[in-house]
Design a protein that fits this description.
single chain; alpha+beta; PvuII Endonuclease, Chain A; six-stranded mixed beta sheet; two-stranded antiparallel sheet; 8 strands; about 40% helix
Length: about 160
């Protein structure tokens, strides 16, 4: 069997596994990584592609993954609301602090090399000033959605290393 043929069989098998288990398209966004992370952490895989990525002992949780040399957690594509007050409420109740636990994961190739767990309120408090700074400039951008990242330093300071 050639490498391309083996890849095709594995591709089809992954899709079949995800379909049989109700996990959705493994090749949509970072869904395959979410499934991999949930399996590694022994979490339940979220039933939907929107909202929570997994379910841990405390309920719905968020996963962020990177293939960068240094760990980071990027929160992109955040919906924008008409006022900063409404934006902050959305971030608190529906987007970031809604999830008690956030897991930041760094990959090297197909292998997980480190996982950090952060409290949702810590993530909210770290990202809020960064998002507030960007908020007034959103109307001048082609993609007006908000985004900000947790740095390696912030993850190490506020997180608990799981792996």
């Amino acid at each position: 069997m050639t490498a391309a043929e083996e890849f095709s069989k594995l591709f089809e098998r992954m899709y079949e596994l995800c379909n049989d288990n109700g996990w959705g398209d493994p090749f949509s966004y970072a869904r395959s990584r979410e499934i991999h992370i949930a399996g590694t952490l022994k979490h339940k895989i979220s039933d939907t592609l929107a909202g929570a990525d997994g379910v841990d002992e405390d309920g719905e949780c968020e996963y962020k993954s990177t293939v960068s040399k240094h760990i980071n957690g990027t929160y992109n594509g955040i919906s924008v609301h008409p006022t900063w007050r409404k934006q902050k409420t959305y971030l608190l109740k529906e987007k970031i602090a809604k999830y008690k636990n956030h897991y930041i994961v760094r990959y090297d190739g197909g292998k997980i090399v480190e996982i950090w767990k952060l409290d949702g309120m810590d993530v909210f408090n770290i990202l809020l000033p960064k998002l507030k700074k960007k908020y007034p400039t959103i109307s001048t951008k082609k993609d007006p959605r908000l985004g900000a990242s947790l740095t390696k330093k912030e993850i190490y300071e506020y997180g608990v290393k799981i792996l």
